[in-house]
Here is the input.
Amino acid sequence: GRRQRSPVWFLDRTVANPLDPAWMRTLPREVLVDVLFPLATSVLGRLGPADEVMSLVEEVCAGGGEGLDFLEFARMRHRVLTGRLVEALELSRREGEPNHLVIRGWVHVLTGDDRAARVCYDEALKQMQRIERTRKVYFRSEAGLFYIVSLMRAGAAQDLKRAADLAQLAMDQQDGPYGPVYGALLPVVRML
Here is the structure.
């Protein structure tokens, strides 16, 4: 039969092939935001060059306004992935936003402060559970991998059990590029 294609696949091959920033700026702002988020997520997920897409994300975010939470998250992820941790922390200071807590947790792990990381990640999960009204929720970005790493480094029995439970949950929920990573991480966590 015919293979289903995702909207991201379509955007990658049409809007971003090649990306035309001048044309994209002509789109209504709401459409531009809707198009930019999956493009940014796709390019960041592949860890590929993101300069053109991210410069548009920066431009849209700098303009402010409503409905930019996901673009702000992509912007912060890009900062972390390019080693600009201080900038990522500065952007993630808004309270009450799970994605901002996730970024802070990720930066804390990268800078060796696992205890602070776990506090941020735990609070982010609580907020996500309230928002989505389910206990079975986990992060849908590479940042979640670092929560599990922080739990593994803690080494206490309850932390290792939590790491294994979260890795299983993440593996079950991931339909993106991180599912196999969680799948590979799960047996390692269980061996500890």
